[in-house]
Amino acid sequence: MVVHQLVIWLLSYNRLSRKPLLFKSFTGLTVQEFDDIYDKQIAKEYDKHEIQRLSKRKERKRDTGAGRPFKLDLRNRFLMLLIYYRLYITYTLAGFLFDLDQSNICRNIQKIESLVRQCLPIPQKMYPITKRLKTPEEVENYFPGFLSFIDSTEQQIPRHVNKRKRKAYFSGKKKRHTVKNQMMVNKRGFIIHKTGYKKGRRHDYDIYKENHPATPKQVVNVFDLGYLGVEKDFQEQLSALPCKKKRNCELSVDEKEYNKIHSKKRIVIEHTICRLKKYRIMNEVFRNRLRKYDRISDIVSGLVNYRIMNQQGL
Questions:
Q1: Residue 311, C-beta contacts closer than 8 angstroms, at least 6 positions apart
Q2: Which residues contact residue 179 at a Cβ distance below 8 angstroms, ignoring those fewer than 6 apart?
Q3: Which of 94, 119, 144 is the last residue of a domain?
Q4: What does pTM read for this prediction?
Q5: 128, 33: one domain
Q6: Which residue range(s) make up the domain with 302?
Q7: For each successive 10 residues of the chain (314 residues), what is the average pLDDT?
Q8: Do 141 and 268 reside in the same domain of the chain?
Q9: Do residues 142 and 247 share a domain?
Q10: 3-state SS class at 70
């Protein structure tokens, strides 16, 4: 009887896929989107990826593929990764749901992350293409309306023990210790460029000056007031910023109308950031090691891009 009750409570693809609304809430993907990514990409690339992963250890004495097999099959390990990213549950709870030890949860997720990253449309795959665009038709395809939107987002991290690192990661804007990501999206909300994480103390424009994405000359880069000075420092590119209110002066009616139109255009990047933060691993206090941050943010960005491409038939 005890064994029977335990089997009922175990989480698996077969059980969860029967409830589409729960499946989307748990993973951030519909059942069809999950199946497309798994069948067309992950399942096909898995054997090749495993051979490459196991061949990296030159001191390895066992044959490739030898050793204890995974308790979960590949489909359920992919499901486990998505649930962990979407809900950001602890390894202990994930172990209970999938009947694994929490250390196995950690290892299983780490060993599949690089494969999932490889199979998704992450920004690092898209940005090199946009730098080679030549004709207006090609530019219009990747930058509809000849517009790009650039902004930064912050995520809280635990307070560091080291005083010097505490100061470096403390954000004066958020009044907490954070890391920053700068991204560029097009009018569809597709993430074309994303920087690695930066320390929370750094200003948005300071990050941009060192990591500014190159766009075709026809494209207008749309910013918020955090990027004041970009028009003077980067005169070779087209830039659009809202009008800033001067001290003891009110904005004119035309300036207010311009700012309203500017905000309506720029809302697309705020929606994209919102999509990212629906994965709670990108929204709550980041509990993992910072060295994993870029890999995780790449995967979440790829999932967001995939959903946008799928919904818009790209």
A1: none
A2: 154, 155, 157, 169, 197, 198, 199, 200, 286, 290, 293
A3: 119
A4: 0.91
A5: no
A6: 123-312
A7: 52 93 95 94 89 74 70 93 96 92 90 94 93 90 94 94 91 92 94 94 93 91 92 91 89 92 94 95 94 95 94 72
A8: yes
A9: yes
A10: coil
